[in-house]
């Protein structure tokens, strides 16, 4: 990046929130950068949660003719047909819902460069990169999550007292949710790097920050959901319950925005200090 770029030097007639070299000004600038990312994460989480609620069961389960009039009492062959019918619907619904969630979250966080730099080019490049990458990676993760869920089905999540073991159920939920949010985190990292005009060769710290956010959310969400939404299941690929889904998307998106914002603010402060 050149020395004339206002994001670093503040020499432009409109230096924006990044101007100034004094420690106090840098602190304010960093706070505003983080706030912008968190605000975008909140918006993305709310919109993403509503989108997930509307699309996670968009395609209905089509019951085979052989299963009609069975009153739910299946032979092993009929049970296999019922499972295949549900799997077919899941393979349509989950990639659609997670892909749309990725499009919204990564695309929205890609706008952070525009919010801070006031550059329309940053808005287009960041949002477009995030939307495309989020949709593609999210859809793939939705299918992968089904495989993970199948592999974990049947595991004993009970403790010695016969009740659900908190650590086992939390680890189960984490393993199921991580594929979806890791894919979205990668897409968001790409979007932020592109919107800031940085080379993808230096995307490592951004990916690390995003991974930290996803892991933190995976640890926190099952515990919070178990306390607030006692009647819902946080251990599904997409948690049950409208408000539970909102909590899931908002918590992940806000933490993603927070960690990406902190990383960007730290990187910009280091650039300003070094004069690069």
What features would you describe in this structure?
- It is elongated and about 75 Å long.
- It is built from seven helices and no strands.
- It has one domain.
- With 276 residues, it is mainly α.
Q: Could you give the order of the helices and strands?
A: HHHHHHH
How many beta-strand runs? 0
Strand proportion, as a percent range, falls in under 5%
Which segments are poorly predicted (pLDDT under 50) over 5 or more consecutive residues? 1-28
Q: So how many helices?
A: 7
The helix/strand class is: mainly alpha
Task: Please give the share of residues in helix.
Answer: over 70%
How many discrete domains?
A: 1
Q: Indicate the overall shape.
A: elongated
> What profile does the largest beta sheet have?
none
Through-space gap between termini:
8 Å
Query: Kindly state the mean pLDDT as a whole number?
Result: 81
Question: What is the gyration radius calculated from CA atoms?
Answer: 22 Å
Key traits:
70% helix, 7 helices, 276 residues, mainly alpha, single chain, disordered N terminus
Topology:
Elements: H1 23-55, H2 76-109, H3 112-117, H4 120-152, H5 166-195, H6 204-228, H7 242-274
Helix pairs in contact: 1-2, 1-7, 2-4, 2-5, 4-5, 5-6, 6-7
